[in-house]
Amino acid sequence: MSGVPTVVDLLTDALGVDAVSVDPAALAASSHDCWPVAAKWARQGRHPHMAQVIVNGVTEQDVVTVMRIATVTGTPVTARALGSSVTGQPLPTRGGIVLDVSGMVGPLIIDEINMTVTVLAGNNGGELEDALNAAGWTTRFSPQSLYRSSVGGWLATLATGQFSSRYGGIEDLVVAYRVVLATGEVAELKASPRAAMGPDLRQLFIGSEGTLGVITQVTYKILPLPRDQRLQTFQMPDVGAGLAVMREQAAVGLRPFLLRLYDADEARHAMADLQVDDPILFAGTEGEPAVSAAEMGVLTELAISHGASVLGPHAADAWMGRRFDFSTVENYVNTSGGFAETIEVAHMWRHIEGLHAALKAALAPLADEVLAHFSHVYTQGTSMYLILLGRAADDAAATERLEKIWVTAMEVCLEQGAELSHHHGGGLARSPYSRRSLGSAHPVLRKLKHALDPDAILNPGKLGL
User: Fold this and answer.
1) What is the full DSSP assignment across 36-94?
2) Staple partner for 76: which of 94, 151, 239, 427, CB 3.0–4.6 Å?
3) Range of the structural domain that residue 85 is part of
């Protein structure tokens, strides 16, 4: 019926014309992220997940307004910040509104007594860390995407960093945050420093990928910059020996900030030496000098007891200097017919070596190189990160190959009882497998979704919802 305002009209009236865009180029850009499959779609001019409108939210009240309009009109909303996801998390599967919160930035609030920093969700993670370092502080949260990702996105995707073996994942660093619900209500979830008043409600939205609410502000723990840091490189006789070192150091309570075991195939890349034939273990300790030295001494003795050769700190130090470099994957993806993918999974100690062998065997026919390393260590197990590189006839064939890689990897992990993701999250890549992965826990997620978002307008099509 003529005269009835559209959702674009309502958003424009409420937020102003500068905050709302239906520009085709902008809509096309927001239909892709850093997922290699989406990057291949973009190269082919394919936009299978296109929004109706983009809204630039710069304040929490903007988000409240968008959610209220979306609820009244039944319009889907997909939150997006810096688009660094590598699994298709911020891609709108049902059109509607892309709520861009990358402009939700502002000054840091550093509390040196409580050792926290409070920051708006759109702030760039690398810029946050640089500002903290200048003041003598650090989050010690260091994902490869540090300078490409937002601090709210870390929480929404249950991210972790390269130093998690000592400092934990984002769930260990968050103190409090604010979230806007589908109805436009605002909730602040906190513990100061711990709270036993019912369930820890902070956990509800961590890793929910924007399906339950939109995070607008976060308070994270900070620490003084470490006074001492020591690095070492070990050549291991085989993957099993390297995994034994990782397991045993966790069992005795060591806390290295860096512990990365490369299988022989990836070791050649890590060492920049094609002659390397054995797995390589990078290790690092830091903190107070006496403690850092003692931990490295014990770790070195442990590695030697499992047949390690000590190669010195240089290779590990070189990796520290290039640890944010994602160019190898990007160069393959941005070449006609080239493809590359990163898939991170996790398993318990008893099964991780078998998972490594099974995935390498199943994926070998699908790529020119299948590389693997183990890099986030827990008392009960570790993560495994796969990198696949190859070339196909053209971009269409490369896209088909990437899709086959995902199906193969996920099916192997399900058969092995592994976790399908360690820190990249579900997104579009893993959503088809979410119900099988979560099993009897998935109905709990669905009940939460129905309670918090009964009309299913928040980031539909993710996490099997």
Assistant:
1) HHHHHHHHTT--SS--SEEEE--SHHHHHHHHHHHHHHT--EEEESS---SS-TT--TT
2) 94
3) 7-100
Q: How much is the pLDDT for 2?
A: 54
Gap between the Cα atoms of 86 and 88, Å rounded: 6
**CA Rg, the chain, in Å?**
23
Return phi, psi of residue 358, to 5°: -65, -45
What pLDDT, in 10s, does the model give residues 307-330?
A: 999 999 999 999 999 999 999 999
Q: Check residue 1 and give its pLDDT.
A: 42
Residues 239 and 291 in one domain: yes
Q: What is the pTM of this model?
A: 0.96
CB 267 within 8 A of CB 226: no
* End-to-end CA, the chain: 33
Q: Kindly state whether residues 405 and 302 are assigned to the same domain.
A: no
Burial 381-403 (b: 16+ CB within 10 A, else e): bbbbbbbbbbbbeebeebbebbe
- CA nearest to 179, candidates 19, 62, 54, 63: 63
> Using CA atoms, how far apart are residues 120 and 101, in angstroms rounded to an integer?
10
* CA triple 379-384-385, angle to 5 deg: 140
CB-CB neighbours of 441 under 10 Å: 10
Question: For the chain, what is the domain count?
Answer: 4
What is the helix (H) or strand (E) element at residue 299, kind and residue range?
helix 289-305
